[in-house]
Amino acid sequence: MQRYPDIWTLQHRASSSYVGPTVSVVRPPVGLIWELGHRDTRTSQKRKPLKVEDEAPGAALKPLVFRVDEGTPRVVQSVLLERGWDKFDEQHQDMEDWNLYWRNSSFRMAEHVNVKPWQRLNHHPGTTTLTRKDCLAKHLAHMRRLYGETLYEFTPLTFIIPNDYTKFIAEYFKEKQVLGTKPTYWICKPAELSRGRGIIVFSDIRDLIFNGTYVVQKYICNPFLVGRYKCDLRIYVCVMGFKPLTIYVYREGLVRFATEKFDLGNLKDSYAHLTNSSINKSGASYQKIKEVVGQGCKWTLSRFFSYLRNWDVDDLLLWRKINNMVILTVLAMAPSVPIAYNCFELFGFDILIDDNLKPWLLEVNYSPALSLDCSTDVSVKRSLVHDIIELIYLNGLRREEKKCSRASPGSSKVSFARGEKCELRTAPDPRPYVSLMQFASRKCSNTNPAVQRANNVCPKHTRTSLLREMMTRQRILLTREAAKSKPRFKAWHAPRKVLSPYTSGAQSQPHRTKGPVGVLPETAYAPNDHAGNFVLIFPFNEATFGASRNGLNIKRIIQELQKLINKQLSRGKN
Ligand code: ADP
Q1: 3-state class of 49 per DSSP?
Q2: For residue 312, what is the DSSP state?
Q3: Separation of CA 247 and ligand 1 centre (Å)
Q4: 3-state helix, strand, coil in the chain (%, to 5)
Q5: How far is the CA of 230 from the centre of ligand 1 (A)?
Q6: What is the pLDDT of residues 13-27, one digit of tens each?
Q7: Structural element, H or E, at residue 316
Q8: Distance of CA 196 from the midpoint of ligand 1 (Å)
């Protein structure tokens, strides 16, 4: 396999025998000051932590090390190997000699407590409370009670049974009375299962059978159809920290189709009513070329958004609604999540759009599937993993060194500009971009016509110019910060400022291991606005930045969000 190592990997030193400055070295997050505390396996001695200034340029450096288990998606391993990482070898390496542990299942609290400053875990403790269907329903119901129906009306009416059985029956008959002879539609889903297992769609209460904890939900019977097929969106969300709360959304994703035409006359046909690809890939029509949808059962999100644009849909408004929904959902769980650093969480949000273009949250997935079942999966998920790695370093700067890097995807510069405090400034376009990822691999030649086309689509910044721009900015900022210590949120006002909470932290606390595990200072700088296709959606202005630093002031955040939503809606109307 051809490798194209990260700059960071190249600068990961094997020897500590020299001292010299490397001002231009782009630092990873504080929790990832890997070489600083990296053990030298030859001597089994923990190296003396080095300061940023201690680094010498051009040193021969050790690759970073990832740890996986049997359940880790293969694409994670292949991306990391491709980036020049080494796989952790339990037999021959010290138990602490790894930098990223990625697995599907959660980590024990002890593993979180013992995580070292140079290590990262791909799960945050306590996040399963959002991803069990009944827990999600409870959290959202709680928020609805506290902050109002209107803000949290993006989930279908939900009952947890058996607990809410009586309430459900009352609602069922109330609705039947209102509708008269017209049927009502419901969906019943096991609270703990995934991939469409055990789900029934029903109209007649006599068809409701349950044995265990289930959620019964209003069935969205007017979905937005493509061709005549139902679909839902898989939106990837990466929470880089709950304290302070930092949420990124991925501008590419999947649209998953049912493979039989939507038909309310036949509720038993899972291929028409459920959009899970685990179900539809075994459907009789999976391989058929279906009306508008084509072959298979997946599109990229960007393809779906261009399809919407062709129908004159306000796709930007839709995308903003989705982002708001993500923030509101994560806010619902954030207070119950324990403090832990050096970890992140990738969620898969399942969102259904109805024929009024209203997005509905169906569920939030823990360890969203990263299996590669088709070419759409390959293009989306490989890039996703690359961008997660970028995200856990710094703003994707290391990719500059790659010989064949991907074209710059729409240059997602999101920052909080003067005069637009309550609005994400997204230049030029925050929506899912016109897909550049139709390639099975990022290893692509510049002479490839597809790459040239892609470059033409998104020519705003080249990687080189971006890198130069960002490095210059960072150097200026670091110099300025050293000269004066202003309250940190002041940095918010600077136009196009891309501050890293990590760079400054690296200098002040290179190897803190005490206290709550991890190293991210509570009063950190504003997080990076993007990494690859991940764009920062929270905090989204100075007020939310402040309200999420020292404890989470949800009330304040909700006020800001409400203002933002009102503004977006009034713009949408004009
Ligand atoms: P699972 O975890 O088993 O995938 P989901 O809640 O994601 O469970 O539901 C599976 C599929 O069922 C969704 O992808 C969607 O197509 C359909 N679905 C779920 N809830 C609803 C609903 N309330 N209205 C319409 N369709 C739904």
Answers
A1: coil
A2: T
A3: 24
A4: 35, 15, 50
A5: 11
A6: 222 222 222 222 233
A7: helix 315-333
A8: 7
CA nearest ligand 1 atom 17, residue: 274
CA of 229 to the centre of ligand 1 (A): 15
Check residue 552 and report its DSSP letter: -
Backbone angles phi, psi at 154, to 5 degrees: -95, 5
12 or 531: whose pLDDT is higher? Answer: 531
CA–CA dist 38, 439 (Å, integer): 36
Q: Which of 238, 234, 242, 253 is nearest to 122 (CA)?
A: 238
Does the beta carbon of 231 sit less than 6 angstroms from any atom of ligand 1? no
How many Å apart are CA 386 and CA 405, to the nearest integer?
11
Strand partners, 244: none
Compute the distance between CA of residue 379 and CA of residue 3 in angstroms, rounded to an integer: 18
**How, if at all, do strands 298-300 and 245-250 pair?**
unpaired
Q: Which two tokens stand for residue 197?
A: 């297992």
Query: How is residue 324 annotated by DSSP?
Result: H
Neighbours of 574 (CB within 10 A): 5
135: three-class secondary structure by DSSP: helix
Task: Give yes or no for residue 194 CB within 6 A of ligand 1.
Answer: yes
Check if 217 has its Cβ closer than 6 Å to any atom of ligand 1.
yes
Is 274's C-beta closer than 6 angstroms to any atom of ligand 1?
Answer: yes
Q: Judge contact between 133 and 363, C-beta under 8 A.
A: yes
Closest by CA to 537, choosing from 326, 366, 364, is 326
Cβ(232) to ligand 1 under 6 A? yes
Which residue owns the Cα nearest ligand 1 atom 10? 196
pLDDT score of 530: 84
Q: What is the 3-class SS of 219-282, one letter each residue?
A: CCCCECEECCEEEEEEEEEEEEEECCEEEEEECCCEEEECCCCCCCCCCCCHHHHCCCHHHHCC
Cis peptide bond prior to 244, omega within 30° of 0: yes
Q: What is the mean pLDDT of residues 53-67?
A: 65
pTM above threshold 0.85 = no
Instruction: Give the SS3 label for residue 205.
Output: helix
- Regarding the beta carbon of 189 and ligand 1, being less than 6 Å apart is answered yes
Averaged pLDDT for residues 414-422: 33
CB 264 within 8 A of CB 221: yes
Q: 102 in helix, strand or coil?
A: strand
